[in-house]
């Protein structure tokens, strides 16, 4: 086997290759039906749809790799967003960056609380975060007095983040999202703590035996997920220009989980890459933009999200079964 | 007889048997009951309405649809699985009912179709969990999005109503001064408690939840039981959806949004063990009334609906912690 074919075959056997092929196929099929899909303008719309999902997806991916799940990110997003919005409105003298940092810190604190409850009482994270999903949403209503933060209070400079661009017409928030993805990649692949998240997720029993401090690590993962959801809240305010306690971020967790599992992150922990997640987010963003262009009602969006989650779980299961069989065969041969 | 007690004596020191009062009193249902009494006393002090049984019965009709589904969910959680999709199943089966009725189908047939939708949705969940061996906790998050999306496709953004007069307002029909949905709830409670407590199937549900592998070796048809429970969830959700449609006299795709939280909350407050194998219908029954009193009490006390979100979320977490603590104390 020549070096090139070998390279190609390893490439094709990666999970990411499948998603990349799907992205290309989708672009070609939709483009063939509706040529408007293959224009720069559409590309820009897709690019703008990505940052919201991508940043939160980085956090959710780390949580899933650690064999947990965080259902509360939609409410955390709303909380950070409303805190930033209220600070913009009521404390106009405070520099914008301070409000933003405070909002992200709030997100981190809520994520920290998730992590503490999960580890301290050894509870399933899905039920805990189902509870905090409701609890944090209640807090959003409480701090905002159930009032929306109107567009005129969102600083122009923040809104311009999603409209202006430093280079090649790529908006700031898109660049920010990809910088976050790169940092996550670096953390997960080249930092000891990041590698330990994989170890924890692939075998929670063995991890403490290998000297991994499970409790602080789990809390760290939830805190990062919360902080990234908080940052997403800022991007939300920048993209949409208002914050509404009853609308912002509702159901967001399902979108993010759909994107992450399409990206090949296993809900059984220990498996998942940043590249896969990025491709999953791009695929989902493309589907979102393609639907209205194809004349499909936006009502179909949730159906597609749900179907995509179920199908991705089935694919993940079959991949795991196959690799388990291959491993068993290799062992019996040796 | 003395010989027998001699031989039965363990060779190593065993822990003393727990005193009888502990066996009877230190159990989650007692906690639920104590909370129920406490909530009732506080609520009666807040408002004189609460000393009136009729008022509580009327208020309960807002939550009884969830309570009915929570009863079946109790069995699912005891068997070691979970279903987070019932609220979405309520919405989709109710939308199927309303859309078919609007399309001109006789209302009876539309109701049957709605129940059949419930069976199909439950079967789909069950097959994904039992045949494809996917974890129910995440699969039902996928199907919850899927079912809710299908409801949206079916009903769009409008509400479907104009049902015949006899169909609407089932919560106002009284039998012996008790609203019909509450009677349905009580009957299903008694039936499920009997099944769980006295039949072989009922005991097998506990065994499956305690140790699935052991149950397989013991010859229990684990897959069949789990599949049956998921289908029962679908049917119960469909019944809940129809009751809600009757109470509201209209159907929208966002019916019962977030209802899964309250259903899981009822089961957890009732002391069912989140990891399976323990729990009771009595607990969920008591917890349903507890939730009615808490929610109505907060409304009567003019506590904003938004603060209720905080209370419900906090209650869910506290109830799992308390239940786990009680089971940890009484284990072995």
TrEMBL record, chain A:
Compartmental location: Cell membrane
Cross-referenced InterPro entries: ABC_transp_permease (IPR001851)
Keywords of this entry: Cell inner membrane, Cell membrane, Membrane, Transmembrane, Transmembrane helix, Transport
Main location: membrane
Transmembrane portions of the chain: 12-33, 45-64, 71-88, 94-113, 125-146, 166-188, 214-236, 242-262, 269-291, 297-315
Signal sequence, start to end: none
Topology class, membrane: Multi-pass membrane protein
Domain of life: Bacteria
Pfam families registered for this protein in UniProt: BPD_transp_2
UniProt-listed PANTHER family: ABC TRANSPORTER PERMEASE PROTEIN YPHD-RELATED-RELATED, AUTOINDUCER 2 IMPORT SYSTEM PERMEASE PROTEIN LSRC
Role, per record: Part of the ABC transporter complex LsrABCD involved in autoinducer 2 (AI-2) import. Probably responsible for the translocation of the substrate across the membrane.
Subunit structure of this chain's protein: The complex is composed of two ATP-binding proteins (LsrA), two transmembrane proteins (LsrC and LsrD) and a solute-binding protein (LsrB).
Protein name: Autoinducer 2 import system permease protein LsrC
Organism of derivation: Devosia rhodophyticola
UniProtKB/TrEMBL annotation, chain B:
Superkingdom, natural source: Bacteria
The protein's name: Autoinducer 2 import system permease protein LsrD
Pfam families the record matches: BPD_transp_2
UniProt subcellular location: Cell membrane
Job description of the protein: Part of the ABC transporter complex LsrABCD involved in autoinducer 2 (AI-2) import. Probably responsible for the translocation of the substrate across the membrane.
Record's keyword annotation contains Transmembrane: yes
Family annotation (InterPro entries): ABC_transp_permease (IPR001851)
Sequence intervals crossing the membrane: 30-50, 62-82, 88-116, 123-147, 182-206, 227-249, 255-275, 282-303, 309-328
Subunit composition and interactions: The complex is composed of two ATP-binding proteins (LsrA), two transmembrane proteins (LsrC and LsrD) and a solute-binding protein (LsrB).
Keyword entries, A-Z: Cell inner membrane, Cell membrane, Membrane, Transmembrane, Transmembrane helix, Transport
Protein topology in the membrane: Multi-pass membrane protein
Species per Swiss-Prot/TrEMBL record: Devosia rhodophyticola
